[in-house]
# Entry
Amino acid sequence: MTKEEKYQELLAQAAAVVAGETDMIANMANVAALIHETFGFWWTGFYRVAPSDSPIKGERKELVLGPFQGPPACMRIPYGKGVCGTAWEKNETVIVPNVHEFAGHIACSSESNSEIVVPVRRNGEVIAVLDIDSKEFNTFDEIDKKYLEQIVKLL
Ligand code: SME
# Structure
């Protein structure tokens, strides 16, 4: 199966899984599992935009770890920080072919070498991000972006 064919199947599975459930955390959990199982990525999960636990720093919201598959990860990421915070700030998908060359990359795991972060939106506003890490360099391209953006629209 080509990568596109795998994504087409994954999209159909994800649509079926979320169809009967309105709870977004439950849907994020199964969508993360489906993506992770299909491609065998190193880490696949969500960070939700949530109230900051230290608003004294100025920003009232930050990314907080949500449902994921893979090793334990950083729990809070500030606005504009790392690949995740950058995708949130820009409100667009960020593809990083080599995380070691991304200024401000937050290394939750030294095993990660490339990454994609896709915003999850409600009424145009970012409410979460989907973050996927790969042990290989240059894992993610426009095909991943195209299908992952469609998958997060299901949430
Ligand atoms: N590398 C991410 C942090 C999250 S972990 O990869 C799971 C970043 O730079 O935002």
Q: What stands out?
A: Residues 43, 73-74, 77, 82-84, 105-106, 108, 112, 115, 131, 133 surround methionine sulfoxide (CB under 6 Å).
